[in-house]
Design goal:
- The chain is an alpha/beta fold and about 350 residues long.
- Helices cover about 40% and strands about 20% of the residues.
- Strand 6 and strand 7 form a beta hairpin.
- Helix 2 packs parallel to helix 3.
- The protein starts with a strand and ends in a 24-residue tail after the last helix.
- The structure holds 5'-O-[(R)-(carboxyoxy)(hydroxy)phosphoryl]adenosine and zinc ion.
């Protein structure tokens, strides 16, 4: 029997909703981004985020049902982001998903947000097969994972301080660019020379697969302050140098993870995986390693409902029992504690 899963994402500043059909794939997806709401504050204000999810979630669910030409009663399961993320924002998705599930008498699955990101590239044509190495680079996480099977994730490396996306966002602030900084830095860097300033490559000579990005941010701040007045070209060169340093550092650690695990597939996921410079640097590296690189289209790299619907679909296949009715969220939730049995 075919399955139709409603996916709900509300972990941070995007309300994402989608419907995945086991036979026809992604039927509909909608996203409301709160960027304009938070931009004036230079970052996400949790209470405003929760309130906006409350206002947008039900209308978005109606819209995806309409787009897919389905009624609520056609749904066979619901998945929602259970964590990690902002507690109030997560609660909006959890309460809505559980209430709908109870009313419709269908299973409701809590999904790990980073597992959603990790699985998103599998929505594309010619997807990778388990096992593979995954680089998860988002606003809150920078992790290298050995994905052995669905739900079986071994942590190979983590950031000791800032996440890659966070480093982009903080560096953007130093360059007086608006939030979120990743796409802004990428845009500015296009007209910059990445070789003009010699940026440090953090932790590159340290063994292992851990990262550290706070030093890069400090280096950028010191560099910017050393100018009496920055020209537009100076700013572009700083952005390009920073972006290249992040890409090279991530690439070196990915290379190590591929060698260490013997894997020949590298999957990149999360908001920063939309970065074209990172994709370029990584594709050169994987070619040299005779490995392959996998990523999702840009709209599936940043937060979205489709990845949660799809993760729900995959998890449903291995689910052994009905999930509990209690409305609970996990603002902090290490991914290696996930099991392959829901
Ligand atoms: O995965 P995501 O949408 O949300 C979290 O789970 O955190 O990632 C958001 C992060 C932000 O830090 C944003 O600046 C960064 O991804 N980002 C980018 C790009 N697009 C989004 N960073 C670099 N280049 C991009 N093109
Ligand atoms: Zn995310």
């Amino acid at each position: 029997m075919s399955e139709r899963i409603l996916g709900i994402e509300t972990s941070c500043d995007e309300t994402g909703v989608a419907i995945y059909d086991s036979e026809r794939g992604l039927l509909a997806e909608r996203l409301f981004s709160q960027i304009a709401l938070h931009k004036v504050y230079g970052g996400v204000i949790p209470e405003l985020a929760s309130r906006d999810h409350v206002a947008k979630l039900l209308p978005l669910i109606d819209e995806v049902l309409n787009d897919a030409n389905l009624r609520l009663s056609d749904l066979t399961a619901i998945s929602f982001t259970e964590g990690p993320g902002l507690v109030g924002a997560l609660m909006v998705g959890a309460a809505t998903a559980k209430s709908l599930g109870l009313a419709l008498n269908i299973p409701v699955m809590g999904i790990h947000h980073m597992e959603g990101h990790l699985l998103a590239p599998l929505l594309e044509d010619n997807p990778p097969n388990f096992p593979f190495v995954a680089l998860l680079v988002s606003g809150g996480h920078t992790q290298l994972i050995l994905a052995k099977a669905l739900g079986e994730y071994e942590l190979l490396g983590d950031t000791l301080d800032d996440a890659a996306g966070e480093a982009f966002d903080k560096t953007a602030k130093i360059l007086s660019l608006p939030y979120p900084g990743g796409p802004e830095i990428a845009k500015l860097a296009q007209s910059g020379n990445p070789d003009r300033f010699v940026f440090p490559l953090p932790m590159i000579n340290r063994p292992g697969c851990d990262f550290s990005f706070s030093g890069l941010k400090t280096f950028t701040a010191t560099l910017v302050n050393s100018f009496e007045k920055l020209t537009e070209q100076d700013r572009a060169d700083v952005a390009a140098g920073f972006e290249m340093a992040v890409a090279k550092t991530l690439s070196k650690k990915c290379e190590r993870a591929l060698k260490q695990t013997g894997c020949s597939q590298l999957v990149i996921a999360g908001g920063v995986s939309a970065n074209l410079r990172l994709r370029d640097v990584l594709s050169v590296m994987v070619d040299k390693q005779q490995a392959s690189l996998f990523y999702a289209r840009p709209s599936l790299c940043t937060d979205n409902g489709a990845m949660i619907a799809f993760a729900g679909f995959l998890r449903r296949k291995i689910m052994s029992e009905k999930p509990p009715l209690a409305i609970q969220v996990k603002p902090r939730w290490p991914m290696n504690l996930l099991s392959n049995q829901t």
